[in-house]
């Protein structure tokens, strides 16, 4: 959850693979200069793309074209709130959007930045469409879930509830687990576009299936990637993320654990001089 005053150069709608209207955003470099590359932003659970103002601004300052959409069920996009039947729905939406943009950019390099849920979407999309991106950047990707939320009892409960009551709320996310910045926490609480309800049984079960599938296929990852993981994340265990990412066959990979970060959204973590890490 970040500054949301960075006005997009363009906003439009894109029809998803399931017929849902996705709200999309585009930011172009200043002075209409030719971008170094294009970057798709894939946001985390409950968020929407405008909450990534800091990372967007940093990319624009370095002459990148930035774009993306609110995933189905979040932000300004249509669809049942915080619900998905399969993570593949998110991935097909990303592939459709990125392919559309790539067709207009000739041979410009294409990257994806994915945070938390968005990181899982990024890896899964890269596995399904290995030539789609020239590189992948992962910020605390949700490829592992802390055992207190992902033990055998919770998994059984999730599978059972997903069948009989997929809309039932199971786990409540707290703003303090997303950012350490009190101003951003206040904005998070007041922002009506941020989903602040519980993780639903149906969504959680679909997400876990997606994570399990990605973990089984990590050895097939052969594209370049950078993974930056918060060292003291209450939801995503750093040691497990490091183990999973090291399974990748890619010869061009870098895994960084930010020990000073104690919250999930490391893109919101500030240094003492107020600048974003």
Would you give an account of this structure?
This protein is α/β, with parallel strands linked by helices. The protein has one domain (10-268): 3-Layer(aba) Sandwich (Rossmann fold). It contains 8 helices and 10 strands. The protein has an 8-stranded mixed β-sheet, with helices on both faces. It has a two-stranded antiparallel ribbon with strand order 7-8. Strand 9 (225-230), helix 8 (238-245) and strand 10 (253-258) form a beta-alpha-beta unit. The protein is globular and about 55 Å long. Mean pLDDT is 88; it is low at 270-277. This is Serine aminopeptidase S33 domain-containing protein. Residues 34-256 form the Serine aminopeptidase S33 domain. It comes from Ramazzottius varieornatus (Water bear).
The CATH architecture is 3-Layer(aba) Sandwich
- Shape verdict: globular
Distance between the termini: 15 Å
What is the third-level CATH name, the topology? Answer: Rossmann fold
The major beta sheet can be summarized as: 8 strands, mixed
Radius of gyration: 18 Å
Summed over residues and divided by their number, the pLDDT gives a mean of: 88
Low-confidence stretches: 270-277
Counting DSSP E segments of at least 2 residues, the number of strands comes to: 10
- Percentage of residues assigned to helices: 25-40%
Counting copies of identical and different chains, the oligomeric state is single chain
Tally of helical segments: 8
The structural domain count equals 1
Pairing-aware structural class of the strands and helices? alpha/beta
The SSE order reads EEEHEHEHEHHEHEHEHE
For CATH, the homologous superfamily is named as: Alpha/Beta hydrolase fold, catalytic domain
| Relative strand content | 15-25%
Biggest sheet, strands in spatial order? 1-2-4-3-5-6-9-10
CATH class: Alpha Beta
Pfam families: Hydrolase_4
Domain Serine aminopeptidase S33: 34-256
Organism: Ramazzottius varieornatus
Protein name: Serine aminopeptidase S33 domain-containing protein
